[in-house]
Amino acid sequence: MLRDLAMLIASMEPELQPGVYVFASLPHDAVVSGAGIVATFREREGMTVVMEEEAARAANIEPLFRAAWITLTVHSDLNAVGLTAAFARALGDANISCNVMAAAYHDHIFVPLEDGGRALDVLRDLQGSAGKLSASPEP
């Protein structure tokens, strides 16, 4: 488990997950289950669900946002500081919005579907530049 920011970025290994994912909002009392569910989060206004687009379509759930899902495969410590800010800044500089979910082992980034490939390139560029910095000898 890594905490050092330069090492985290240099080791993040972004991976584009296959498929299309959607964010949707459901009533608090909605029962959600099934293989298509990726994540849920309860908010005051309702329950946000992230799920495979086909599963949402089959359940007649109206999507709010269609996304590509990128996983940073590095096992980052939940107490690590700066990783989210670093990749969010890189994506923002490329004019790509991101919705981030930190889980126990990895960070997951949902970007607009049409920006998935470009976001992956931006993250790989960030990773490569961090690798060069961490490999440089100190003065």
Automatic annotation (TrEMBL):
Signal sequence annotation: none
- Pfam families hit by this protein: ACT_3, ACT_7
SUPFAM superfamilies registered for this protein in UniProt: ACT-like (SSF55021)
Q: Where is the DUF2241 domain?
A: 3-66
Q: Which InterPro entries match?
A: ACT-like_dom_sf, CASTOR_ACT_dom, DUF2241
* TM region(s), chain numbering: none
The CASTOR ACT domain covers 68-125
Per its record, how is this protein called by name? Acetyltransferase
- The scientific name of the source species is Caballeronia hypogeia
